[in-house]
């Protein structure tokens, strides 16, 4: 007989979330790796909260798992994330909420973000994930690649105004007054964004439009293509090279040979000299655009140079995932610290997506 289209409710519910998630679901392996990293973060997380004072907070581990889901499923805001957490059993299982537990308010993320910033939790989570023995076996400790990408700021060009206040709109113009920038010279020396003072006007190359943005930097190991270091800086012409040196600092002065692949934007005398001082071989692409390259035949004649040049392009896969899936093509945050937290955490989420398959292949 035909079933009736009516809603029925039960007084009691016996739903086992563990049984509702199939055994081969991709999030099972991801959750296991993430939980092991969170166990290593217990001392750092405990230090962020006062002992025996006030009401118990929402567990930071649950907040971090929810932030991972936001990156995995391209959820645009914390409001939408909490709405999804209300009805999605898979989300509740991954975060660690019971079927009858209430989802918390979206403002909880804003209130706890400062704690995560103070503890540098995003970078520690990335490091804890890579420190697991089975993950560590996948990583190369000798060969790396580095690159940077633009992260558009949450600020419009209309907010980019003269620092001396000369560009203030008329009193009757409203919040979104008409503006004509044609013929006006604008630079970071004379102008600043009123929405996000940390954002800088920058363009990636000749012929490209200038945008208010930040620069995200990533260090990739060449064996598995995993991100082993990430940071974010204000956008300027020196930021990429300075960030690359900072990311390579933990691997400097080692007795064995270490290589660093990079594109031609890193082909400068100062950068190459600094790498060699750190005992890192610069496998940098030659920039032969009307000037002498800092990389000569002493480096390019080796077969490893060509290998580094081929593999270094895989770092664009990480940037593509971070900007499209994780939603950081244009950030939702303001201030370099908050944008860096989101960028580093998105890099960790990218590794988590790739790790289950890499671990299965290594068995």
From TrEMBL:
Source domain of life: Bacteria
InterPro entries for this protein: Transpos_IS5 (IPR047959), Transposase_11 (IPR002559), Transposase_InsH_N (IPR008490)
GO biological process, one term: DNA transposition
The keyword rRNA-binding is annotated on this UniProt entry: no
Region (Disordered): 161-201
The Transposase InsH N-terminal domain, residue ranges: 16-115
MF annotations from Gene Ontology: DNA binding; transposase activity
Listed Pfam families: DDE_Tnp_1, DUF772
Keywords assigned by UniProt, alphabetized: DNA recombination, DNA-binding, Transposition
Transmembrane residue ranges: none
Residue ranges constituting the Transposase IS4-like domain according to the UniProt record: 205-352
Annotated function: Involved in the transposition of the insertion sequence IS5.
NCBIfam families according to UniProt: transpos_IS5_4 (NF033581)
Record-stated family: Belongs to the transposase 11 family.
Protein name, entry field: Transposase
């Amino acid at each position: 007989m035909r079933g009736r289209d009516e809603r029925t409710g039960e007084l009691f519910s016996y739903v086992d979330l563990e049984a509702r998630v199939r055994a081969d679901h991709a999030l099972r392996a991801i959750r296991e790796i993430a939980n092991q990293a969170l166990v290593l973060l217990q001392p750092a997380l405990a230090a962020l909260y006062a002992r025996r004072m006030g009401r118990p907070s929402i567990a930071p581990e649950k907040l971090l798992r929810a932030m991972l889901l936001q990156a995995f499923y391209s959820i645009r805001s914390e409001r939408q994330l909490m709405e999804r957490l209300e009805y999605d059993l898979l989300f509740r299982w991954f975060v660690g909420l019971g079927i009858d537990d209430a989802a918390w308010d979206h403002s909880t993320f804003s209130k706890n973000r400062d704690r995560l910033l103070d503890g540098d939790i995003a970078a520690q989570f990335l490091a804890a994930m890579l420190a697991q023995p089975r993950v560590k076996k996948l990583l190369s400790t000798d060969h790396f690649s580095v690159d940077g990408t633009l992260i558009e700021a949450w600020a419009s060009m209309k907010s980019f105004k003269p620092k001396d206040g000369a560009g203030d709109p008329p009193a009757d113009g409203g919040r979104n007054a008409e503006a004509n920038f044609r013929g006006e010279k604008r630079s970071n020396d004379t102008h600043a964004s009123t929405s996000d003072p940390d954002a800088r006007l920058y363009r990636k190359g000749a012929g490209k439009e200038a945008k208010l943005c930040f620069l995200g930097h990533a260090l990739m190991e060449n064996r598995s293509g995993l991100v082993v270091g990430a940071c974010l800086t204000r956008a300027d012409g020196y930021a990429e090279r300075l960030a690359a040196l900072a990311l390579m600092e933990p691997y400097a002065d080692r007795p064995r040979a270490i290589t660093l692949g990079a594109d031609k934007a890193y082909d400068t005398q100062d950068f190459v000299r600094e790498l060699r001082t750190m005992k890192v071989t610069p496998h940098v692409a030659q920039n032969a655009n009307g000037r002498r390259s800092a990389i000569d035949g002493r480096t390019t004649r080796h077969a490893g140079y060509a290998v580094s040049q081929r593999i270094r392009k895989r770092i664009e896969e990480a940037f593509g995932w971070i900007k499209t899936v994780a939603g950081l093509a244009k950030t939702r945050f303001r201030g370099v610290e908050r944008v860096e937290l989101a960028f580093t955490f998105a890099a960790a989420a990218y590794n988590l997506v790739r790790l289950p398959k890499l671990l299965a292949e290594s068995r």
